[in-house]
From TrEMBL:
It comes from Phaseolus angularis (Azuki bean). GO terms for molecular function: cysteine-type peptidase activity. Residues 1-27 form the signal peptide. Belongs to the peptidase C1 family. Residues 138-363 form the Peptidase C1A papain C-terminal domain. GO terms for biological process: proteolysis. SMART domains: Inhibitor_I29 (SM00848), Pept_C1 (SM00645). Residues 53-109 form the Cathepsin propeptide inhibitor domain. SUPFAM superfamilies: Cysteine proteinases. It comes from the Eukaryota. This is Cysteine proteinase. PROSITE patterns: THIOL_PROTEASE_ASN (PS00640), THIOL_PROTEASE_CYS (PS00139). PANTHER family: CYSTEINE PROTEASE FAMILY C1-RELATED (PTHR12411). The keyword rRNA-binding does not apply.
Amino acid sequence: MVAKRGHGLTCFARLSLFLFGLTLSSAHQTTVQCIARKLKLEDNQLLRTEKRFRVFMGNYGRNYSTREEYLQRLEIFAGNMLRAAENQALDPTAIHGVTQFSDLTEDEFQRHYTGVNGGFPLNNGAGGVAPPLEMDGLPEDFDWREKGAVTEVKMQGKCGSCWAFSTTGSIEGANFIATGKLLNLSEQQLVDCDNQCDITERTTCDNGCNGGLMTNAYKYLLESGGLEEESSYPYTGEKGECKFDPGKVAVRITNFTNIPVDENQIAAYLVKHGPLAIGLNAIFMQTYIGGVSCPLICSKRWLNHGVLLVGYRAKGFSILRLGNKPYWIIKNSWGKRWGVDGYYMLCRGHAICGMNTMVSAAMVAQTQTTTQTAIAWHEDRRKWVGDRSQHPPRIAKDQIISWSTSYEELLSTNEPFAEPIPLPVRFHYLKESNLMHKKCMCSNGCHNVKVYL
C-alpha cells in the first residue's frame, strides 16, 4: 500500500513537472514573440537573430545567469542589429554589425565605454589655442605607428576612462619624439589621482571611471610633476586609492595646447608635433566593424569619447564603390578585437562627428631631468616665490628688472623657499610684455618655460 502510494505520488509529481515545463515553454515563446512584435520582426527574422545572438555569446564569452536576463539581452541585441542596419544605411563606406557591445543599451555603452565629460565641443584649458602652422610639404599619407611613436592598443574595460588613455597616448608620442624612447605610461595614475576641473566649467571634473577631460589631465600632470610608467602603476579598470610616487615619474610635460579646428591644421600639427588627443561623438562606433566611417548624420555638438589621432591616408577602401575617401587613423582603447585591430578609420575633411573640435597636444622636455624650480618676484611679499614643478607659480606678480643670479645668491638676500632647492641652477630672466621667458641652464639638460605674470 505504501509502495503504491509512493508510485502514485511519483506519477503526480512527474505530471506536475511536465505541465510546469509546458507553462515555462509557453511563457518563453510568448516572451520571445513579444520581443518580435515590439521590434516588428517576422518569425524567420527572430529565429536568425537568436542564432546570431548565441554565436555572439560564444564569441565574447557571455553567460547570463537567468532566463530573464537572457531574454532581456536578446531584446537589446535584436534592437542593436536593427540599429546596425540603420547605421549601415547612413554610413555606407563602413561596415556595421555585431561587436562586443551588441548586448548593451546605448546608455550602458556610453556610460561604461566612453567617458569624455562636458559633452559640448571645447577649446578649454590654460593651454590656449595654438597658432596656425605652415602646411606646405605635408605628406599625402602619414602614420606615427610606422615611426614607432605609438604603443599597442589598450583595453579600458568597463570603465569610462577613455580620457586617460587619450591623454597618455598623446604624451607617449610626444615623449618618443623628444627622447627617441617609446614608454608605456600609466592610465591608472590619472584614474586614481586626477581630480582636476575645467576652468570654464567647474562641474566638469576628472573622476576616474566616471569620465574626464584630456586638458584637465594635462593640468593635473603639470601640477603633480608627471606620469609613471604602466609597469610601476598598472591599470585595474576601476578607481582606487592614489598611489602616485613622484620618485617614479617617467615623463614630465612642460605645457599643452589646443589645436585649431581646421582639419588641415590638425594634419600639420599631427605631422610636426606627434599623435593628438581628440574627442568625438562615438554613436556610430558601437556597431563599427571596419571600412572608412563617413556617416551622413553625426552630431558635432555632443562629444562623449576620447581617442588618439595617429595618422591619415589620402584614399580609403569603400565597400560600395562610392569612391575613395581620405580618412583619419584613430587609435581606440577597446582592445584589438574591436574595429580594425583596435583602430577607427574616420572620414577626413568634413568635421565628422565633431572630431576637430576637441583636439590637444602635450609638450615634453627633450631631456627628462630632476624637478626644477620656477621662481618669480612677488611684489606684495617682497620676496622670490616659486614651486618645484615645471609650471609657473600661481601667485607670481610682474617684476621690473631683468637679472641673472644663482640659487646661492638668491638665498643669501631673500627668505628661504618653502621647499628645499634641489640643485644649484642659474636662471636668466628676460622681460617681454606680460610674460617672462625662463631659460633653465643646468648640467643635465635645458628647458624653456614661459612664466605668465
